[in-house]
Predict the 3D structure of the following.
Amino acid sequence: MVCIIPVGSFEQHGPHLPPTVDAEIAQHVANALGEKIGARVLPPLFYTCSDEHKGFPQTISVSCRRFIPYLEDVVRSAAEKCGAVIVVVGHGGVWEAISMVTQQINYAMGPVAFAVNIWTYAAPRDHAGTDETSIYLATGGRLIGEMPEICEGDVSLFGKMPVHAFSSTGIVGCLKPSEVSAERGRALLDKALEKMVKKVGEFLALTGRTYSAPRQVS
């Protein structure tokens, strides 16, 4: 059996999106991936490392030094029960930690864990901007406030300083309401999912496990 663990966050996404955006997107992608490879999707992890967003009241974060051993226990236990675990990462701030954890588990247990970063494949140009808002709407998400038209900050500054130091709204990059649409988001997600299915398939082939043949993304 193959299990999928979606990992997100509970962090600010500007004045128009809920703090559960990353987890909801991860859950949506995990469900779609699970259908294509015949895997069981487990409940998502919401509370993760989001200290870069702690300057905003919508964020609840745990320290990475405490999150990493917890994540390791979850993935290791899932691997023992399922045989193989795919971790679908919807929060960029934990990607390095999850990549390291899955690598170390594989060194100890053999090839049983594989992590995929949604944002590597979808490649949005922003945080809570035009691209990410469109992707969220494509998953069935709903706005919680008005979308401002704004460009501020630079996504390259993530990991270098707190987000509130370069964005007053929490939006990083550009948000242009006239360009936001579920159709735009669906196009980004479909291309990303196609690539993720291929990568996951390559990993499962290395483990000797079989999976259902991928259907063409429409």
